[in-house]
Specification:
CATH architecture of chain A: Orthogonal Bundle
Shape of chain B: globular
Shape of chain A: extended
Distance between the termini of chain A: 53 Å
Helix content of chain B: 25-40%
Domain ABC transporter (chain B): 2-246
Number of helices of chain A: 10
Largest sheet of chain B: 6 strands, mixed
EC number (chain B): 3.6.3.28
Largest interface: A-B, 21 and 33 residues
Largest sheet of chain A: none
Order of helices and strands of chain A: HHHHHHHHHH
Number of helices of chain B: 11
CATH class of chain B: Alpha Beta
Organism (chain B): Mesobaculum littorinae
Distance between the termini of chain B: 31 Å
Number of domains of chain A: 1
Oligomer: heterodimer
CATH superfamily of chain B: P-loop containing nucleotide triphosphate hydrolases
Radius of gyration of chain B: 19 Å
Structural class of chain B: alpha/beta
Keywords (chain B): ATP-binding, Cell inner membrane, Cell membrane, Hydrolase, Membrane, Nucleotide-binding, Translocase, Transport
Pfam families (chain B): ABC_tran
Chain lengths: 276, 258
Amino acid sequence: MTADTPPRSAAPQGTPRDTWSRPPFIANPALRWAVYLGAILYFGWVGVTMPIDWGRVAEGLGRAANIFGGAIPPSFERSGLLIDGFLESLKIAILATVGGVLLSIPIAFMAARNIAPLPVFYLGRAIIIVARSFHPVIVAIIFVKAVGFGPFAGVLTLIVYSIGFVAKMLAERIEEIDYGQVEAMRAAGAPYLSTLVYAIFPQIMPRQIGLSIYQLDSNLRASAVVGIVGAGGIGATLANAFGRYDYDFAFAITIVIVGVILVSEGVSGQIRKRIQ
Amino acid sequence: MLKITDLVKRYGSGDPVLKNLDLMIEGESVVSIIGSSGAGKSTLLRCINRLVEPTSGSIELNGTELTHLRGRALRTARRKIGMVFQGFNLVDRLTVMENVQSGRLGYISTWAALSRSYPKADIRRAFELMERVGIAHYADTRADQLSGGERQRVGVVRALMQEPEILLADEPTASLDPKTSEQIMGLLRDLARELKLPVLINIHNVTEAKEYTDRIVGMRYGRIIFDDQPAALDKAAMDEIYSGSPHADRSDPLKEAS
């Protein structure tokens, strides 16, 4: 036994070892305690220095009570507006999902290390990283500036949002494929596209369908958020209701949003379960 | 005729996996390659259809030099080289017919492949071959529904659909049970006779190699050290092929010289 073996394992020869403890997360004790202590100090410092004005919190409680008081009971009087808003959101979500998924497929192939040559791979990854790095609300603000208020800005926003998610997940699936099938096609002298169609598409198809359905569901949720900054759909209706202090109508919209998202989650979950 | 001359394959900067290897296969003989894991059997086979790039040397199939082909010329040459894999490498989610027709992908357009509009002659040939190996009734079945032996039959038919001039089989029976394994070996031997096709089989099972093939090539660490009729493969030859460890073989210069 060498000198640097820790003492706890240096049991005398012949005595069976019957104690064992899990190796610590960070082996060096000094570093370990420094990390723990540092984390505690940082959180303490953040808590102490955060500018929280308790007076304003107290005032805010009153205002919140006002809003909720005005919101109850919810008003479904203008249900025509509500339905129009939702139909627009649904259109935005469907268009964005179709467009986003169609664009995601080639980008995913570009971003799969086992398929694409290195420069193409970097380009594909770069597109995905850019699409992922901005929250849909920020993207929506840019598109609203670019193409004006309304659902078109919403569609463009959610296309970017869809690419960020679908292309990334699909690229990861492509990287996990059984390469033997590709090898078999190459050995038969198949051209590049035929190889993709026969050896890769069948392998990624279930994931592709699952992702599309998930993304439709996700886009419907996001369309409510991006509407608030002017990109159309139910979010725009909600923002207007707040702007006019119609808290009862706003509450009605919120209830319906929650209901629709519950339903769409249930439906998409069922469909995804069926196709696995 | 397949003629391999002075073939070298080196991965990275290490010791070569294939060391100045020469091999000639004439006529319609069934040749088996035996040797322990790491001897370079699989690399040799994959160099022939260029799934692995040879480092240097020459591989000639019926007068065509294969080692420098690129793009379309390489694909055209690959059409004439059928390959059967250890793990079958079928597309699980496609039907048996689609898998069989994927052997024709080098001949038909991507559009025809995508829309599954296969030429009549190809469909006829597919049914004939599937009939021959006993899987015609599975034409519409998804490939992952089949048993191992049936899957390898699909693999064989897919390779034969290419109308190959040579068939390579990379441990075609290693994933199969002993009985199925013998059936597949018998099938390969019979098809070779019927189609007048040279067949090159990597195999671990020496008994099967002796029974089903006309000639045995023994490899040890990148070199061919035995090449003769199955009857000539005696205990001494076997010991020589399967003895030693890769490490000792590669690091000991005296053994290399012997």
